[in-house]
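pasting for ref
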Amino acid sequence: MGCMTASTGRRVLLAAPRGYCAGVDRAVIAVEKALEQYGAPIYVRHEIVHNKYVVQTLEKKGAIFVEQTAEVPEGSIVMFSAHGVAPVVHDEAAAGRLATIDATCPLVTKVHKEAVRFAKEDYDILLIGHEGHEEVIGTSGEAPEHITLVDGPEDVAQVEVRDPSKVVWLSQTTLSVDETMETVDALKDKFPQLISPPSDDICYATQNRQIAVKKLAEDAQLVIVVGSKNSSNSIRMVEVALDAGASAAHLVDFAAEIDEAWLEGVTTVGLTSGASVPDVLVDGVLEWLAERGYGDVETVKTAEESITFSLPKELRRDLRAEAAALVADRTGGTPSAE
């Protein structure tokens, strides 16, 4: 570790990697590009990513966030969030004469494809994840008759399958690695022939950020995670920090939410951010801490990230014309020029 500031002995350990993952970066840019290319409004089903600041910023640019596909006016463009949607949502969009942009993270899409493949082979699929999370709803919708949700190790005792020799586990991509493997171990005790997915479902960014926060917790009495309350990966990072030995860990959306009482007796603050968080929010926390004597900032790097994803292919088409054509097809009329 680097030297502390001589005057106060206070420092900040800044995690790297932190913040935006490739899937979030792709989804946010997709909304911005759609607004530039097609003009406002662009409807987005659910929050494009789980971050209050990002959602508010995109709303100011002309994005409209809705909870249900039925809220989108006929002939409009709707984007599906990075968390993915069930096949029935695509059907709803088609029935509503909507042009669609699918911004589902490719790593989530991979889990969807695994669910479809194992269902076709008539496996019982045990999906490890949190009930009600958009990603879990989307994955479950790919094969609802084959998928059983397992929300942590405590659920394992109640799990029943048709054939213990044909069981596979999949998982939500944003979970705690340690908690997920605890659930997997419990499932393997109950179903010794349980098959693991062909590759680890927990995304690289989630794993990297959890490894980084564990490193921070070795030396920091307080860990601050920048992220929203509905961000699964951000919540998990707080839990991981506490499990790794931090005396305290808190989740905040903005610097203004930090309680100065948290700093009492603290010489070293660990700082990181969830995979949906832009660095401008972390910069705000660094400024807030510097004003209170924590001006010595040391980066703690635990991994390099170079993964990028191409933008959704739909952004290469004229979706406004496609939406108008869908409406015209229904009414038997001619699409109006825009």
